[in-house]
Amino acid sequence: MGTKTTLDNDLEILLPKLYRVILLNDDYTTFDFVIEILKSVFNKTEEEAINLTLKVDREGSATVGVYPYEIAEMKVNKVHSLARSAGYPLRARIEEV
């Protein structure tokens, strides 16, 4: 379910499992659109967004963030929604860390 962490006073906190959000390459989505997605959905800087976009292009995919499941799912849904609205097939997926 999660990772247990014991504090100094023997209290245990259950930390949520984390999930990678992976952006997938396609032949149609523009670099500019992917960069904007990375900046707006994943709060990346311009430089980070450019580097991640290049990695997706070269390697076929890239991890763009690590989050608890609900947040990862929300970000993937946002990517898909924005891409469809703009007419692009951009996809992302979730993978357990």
UniProtKB/TrEMBL annotation:
Domain Adaptor protein ClpS core: 16-92
Keywords, sorted A to Z: Hydrolase, Protease
Residues in the signal sequence: none
Entries under Gene3D superfamilies matching the protein: 3.30.1390.10
GO process annotations (BP): proteolysis
InterPro entries per record: ClpS, ClpS_core, Ribosomal_bL12_C/ClpS-like
One MF term in the entry's GO annotations: peptidase activity
Transmembrane segments: none
Entry-linked HAMAP family: ClpS
Primary role: Involved in the modulation of the specificity of the ClpAP-mediated ATP-dependent protein degradation.
Quaternary organization: Binds to the N-terminal domain of the chaperone ClpA.
Protein family according to the UniProt entry: Belongs to the ClpS family.
Name the record gives this protein: ATP-dependent Clp protease adapter protein ClpS
Provenance organism: Caminibacter pacificus
Organism taxonomic ancestry: Bacteria, Pseudomonadati, Campylobacterota, Epsilonproteobacteria, Nautiliales
